[in-house]
Structure formats: structure tokens, C-alpha cells
Amino acid sequence: MPEIDNLRHSLAHVLAQAVCRLWPGTKVSIGPAIDTGCYYDFLFENPISDDDLKKIEKEMKKIIKGSQSFEVEKLKADDSIKLWKDRGEEFKVELIEDLKKEGETEVTHYKNLNDKGEEVFVDLCKGGHVENTKEIPVDCFKVINLAGAYFRGDEKNKQLTRVYVLAFGSKEELAEHLNMLEEAKKRDHRKLGKELDLFTFSEMVGPGLPLWTPRGTLVRNLLDDFVWELRSAKGYDRVTIPHITKKELYETSGHWQKFAEELFHITTREGHEFAMKPMNCPHHTQIYAHMPRSYKDLPQRYAETTTCYRDEQTGELHGLSRVRAFTQDDAHVFCRMPQVNEEFLKIWDIVDAFYSTVGFGELEVRLSLHDPNAPEKYLGTKDLWKDAEQRIRDIAKDRGIPFVEQIGEAAFYGPKVDFMTKDSIGREWQVATIQLDINMPENFDLSCTNENGEKERIVMIHAAIMGSIERFFSIYLEHVAGHFPLWLAPIQVALIPVSKDYEEYALSLQSKLKEEGIRVDYYDSSESLGKRIRIGEKQRIPYLLVCGEKEKSDNSVSARNVKTKEQVEIPVSEFIEKVKEAVADRSLEHPF
Q: How far is residue 591's CA from residue 585's CA, in Å, rounded to a whole number?
């Protein structure tokens, strides 16, 4: 069996060849391997549809069975440009011209040869590949969907059609992933958000700008209050900043140079240039800097939950997971270098407490480091980065947990500890992050007066627990499939009288439950009992309390657990007691 990356790279070439056979005149762009298979971007003369996916897959299998071999060939950049110009492949020409500008004198191509040794396809690619297509199992891949994509991700370029292929090492792995995708469709946070009335979007407001309903806002606030409770216990103070800033703040921080195109720009009537804030850290530096600081004042720990704004491309927006307005549960610690370890570990405690409480499994840790081969992407000197990265390695070792290192994933101002988790259907997500910032204090000249009366440069720690609340909410909603634990459920109980005769009893229970702080909804008897139960189940309300003659006589309720479908008759007082206890403990399990 070939290495999975080589198999996926090879399938991308087979995909491009199949499409060009089926639709001559199609222009090819790029076709990388990805974690679940591969894709290829095309410019078709006439649009294709999902109905064509099976046709593409059939042609790919035909090519594979034809036993084509892959042969590598290096061409001088100018020769390659001529090759693709002669073929009318404008996208390939642009890619090679850019490589040439970057100093590349040669580029690699892979040719597909038939069993007679004749070239039947060629593509620009670094490799690697299988030696022959017969090594690719024809039952390990599936052409799954189409999507729109701008060439090189730039909306100023032509819009292309992206064809996605799933590819795994075996038929069984493919089937397992397809089953996961089916489950993911059922759990899609956009679908659940609408069904549970948690958030919405409006064309009049604009794409990527979510609107939170009362129920969704309640859940958000409960999550954020929990984060603040954990932070408050570690000595954090709340701060508040505006949503816009002068251009100069981001020029000093370095964000303007790196992210100017992602900012929402504002020009005042007087001609001053402002921006909507895409992050909060530069503002927080100015709270620290507004007065002289002694070493005795440190650490300074600032926390704030506030909305940030980024001018994301419309085609990349996706429900709550990719938006233009997102809310960060942000915190920044200003401290001396010897205090870094202790402050990092305090934040780590908060991360562990939060994610275990909301119901994610053990977190995996990734140290996100800079790419030494691309120093232009980062602020600061080589020595600063070396010292900072070694420090977070030492912190992770002090924590006594295994970790992996990921080159090139650091923030532009410093290395990070990123926390990874898997949801209930096996997808991996990056969630919380702790970042050591060695550059922004330098840029803003942040310091304290030390024990010797000397000016001492401080460091800065960025800490996001949920990070973007919108993105976290999308992950969490799909993780629990809409079945929130009692403490987070926007409606915890629905009261359902069997008939009109028992509405008075049900309404009296509603008043009693509300007095006890339990969030309750009431379904009157205008609809059938079965329909009302189905409505409650669809709303994922943790408990449906059915009230009839027996319950009225015994001052009890028949409590139906919506998740397990189990039903138990229980005295009202005991029901209230157990629900309140589960909420107070932030229990993941319903009490019965």
C-alpha cells in the first residue's frame, strides 16, 4: 500500500486528467492533497453540476485500471512557462512566473505514461506519487462535491470550480469517514441553530454578521460567565476598550503591515484613517502603558469579552465557524520574564477546568513554533524566538504532559501553546491557545521599574479560552448535537398537560419552577399530546414533564429524559432539588 500522501497526490493528477478527458478545453489550476483526500480547481467552459460527479469518478477508475506510470521531469522555469503558454494554461503560467520571481530556476513536473510509454498527461507538481496507478485501490476514494474557489484564494482573481475527492488507505477507512460525514450533516450547527432558535443571519445586516436570539445569547453568556469565574479566581480584572482605533496603533503593533487587507477601514470626516479592531491586544497595551509600573504592580491581568471584526472573503464564510464579526473571550497578562511560567500554568488550569466541565475529552497539546526558513513572516530576532520557544517547551515539560511541535504555526509575534480536542464524531479541532508575546512589548516600549530602580522590559501573554465564541459555539453545538447539559440548556423543562383538565396544575408547576430559577416552557393542550412531545424532543429540551390525573393527585411529574427517552415519575420537590443540584454542579449528566 502506498503512503497516503503519495496516493492522494496521485489521485489529484488522475482527477485532473479525468476532467480534461470529459470536458476538453477545461483549464487546470492547482490540485493539492489534503487531510481527507485531494481537490483540484478548474475553469470550465460550461458549468458542471453534482450530477457529473459519478461520471468523473467512473473516468478516474478507468484511468487507474489503465496502469499509468508516473515519471518525474525537471524543466527550466522558462521552458516550463513556454510549455504551459503553448497549452493555453494561464494559471500554470502565473504560478511558475511567481516561482521564478522568488528565485526558482527549475520546476518539477510529473508525467503520466501509458503502458506503451506514451505521455497522456502532465502536471506541475513537487510530488511525491505512486509509481503506477495500479497501486491505487479503486474502492478507496469517492468524488464527493463541488465548490466555488477563487484562483489562489483571491477574490480579485477568476472564480473556479473546485472538485473534492475523499481518499483513504482502504475501503473500510473510506466507509468510516463517509459515515462520519453523514452524522456531521445531522449535527450541522447551521441546521441546529435554526431548529433550536439560537442564532440567525440577515441579508439586510450582511453575510458573516451573526445575530443571536435570546436563547442563543443565554447559552453564550453562561459559557462566558464560567470562563470569567475561572479567571476571576486567578486574579484577573475586567477592562473595556472601543471597537475602532487609529491606524497608528496597528502600525506600531505590526498588525497593519501583516493584515491591512483583512481590516475594515474607516475614514473620518476629517480624513483620519481608522480601523475596526480585528483583535484586542494592541488596545490592552495602552491600558498597561497609561501610567508608570513598578515590579510590585506585576503581573497585570486584563480580561475582556468583546467583538472583533475581520474582512473575510464572502466565499470563505461558513455559519458561525467563519464570520466577519466574532466575539473573543480575550485576556492579556503583562509580567516579568521570571513570572511567565507561573502565569502560563494558571491559564492552563483554566483551560483544563473549562474543557473538562463542558464535556470534551483529554486535550492534546501542540507547541506552535515559527518557521526559521521564512523569517519575513515574523517580528523579532532569531535569538528572541529561540529563547521564547525554549521557554514554552520547558513550561509544557513542567506540566508533565506529552506534546507535539508544529513548525510554522506560531503567531507572527510569538510562539503558542495550542490545545487540540476531538469532538464526539472524531473530528479534531484547535480550541484554546496561550501565546507568549516577545515583540509587542518591544514595539510599544512596555516596561516596569525593577528592584534596582532600572527600566526592565516586560513580556506579554495572550490567553483565549474559547477564543472566538462563535467558532467555539459551532464546534460545541455539533459536539453535543444540540443536547446541552442542564446548566447550559436555554430551556431546561417543558410542561405538558395531558389535556385541558390538567392545565391549571401544569401552570402552577410552571410558577413554582420559575421561582426556583429553572428555565421552563409551557405547551398547552391545543395540540395532541404526541405532537407536543415531538416538539419538545426536536427542541432538545432536557426534560418533558407530562402532567395528568396521577401526577396531579400525587403532586408529582412524569419526567421524560429527551436524550435517553427514559421516563420516571418523581415528586415535584425531588425533581426541583435534583435539577438545581445538577445545574449548580455544572454536571454533564442529567440526574435521571
A: 11
- CATH number belonging to domain 493-584: 3.40.50.800
Kindly give the interhelix angle for 469-479 and 171-187, rounded to the nearest 10 degrees: 110
149 backbone dihedrals φ, ψ, rounded to 5°: -155, 135
Q: Where in the sequence numbering do the catalytic residues fall?
A: 281, 310, 328, 330, 332, 416, 462
Residue in this structure with the C-alpha cell 500522501, named with its chain if needed: 5
Q: How far is CA 409 from CA 22, 168, 278, 366, 442, in A?
A: 40, 26, 19, 9, 22
What residues contact residue 159 under an 8 Å CB cut-off, 6+ apart? Answer: 148, 149, 150, 151, 315
pLDDT digits (tens, 9 = 90+) for 135-175: 999 999 999 999 888 888 777 889 999 999 999 999 999 99
Element (H, E) at 99: helix 90-101
Model confidence over 365-410: pLDDT tens digits? 999 999 888 888 888 888 888 888 999 999 999 898 899 999 998 8
The CATH superfamily label for domain 4-186 reads Threonyl-trna Synthetase; Chain A, domain 2 (3.30.980.10)
Class of domain 194-479: alpha beta
Name the segment(s) of the chain with CATH classification 3.40.50.800. Answer: 493-584
CATH 3.30.980.10 occupies which residues in the chain? 4-186
pLDDT in tens, 335-373: 999 999 999 999 999 999 999 999 998 899 999 999 888
CB 283 within 8 A of CB 276: no
DSSP state letter for 361: -
CA 163 to chain centre: 22
Q: Where in the chain is the domain with CATH 3.30.930.10?
A: 194-479
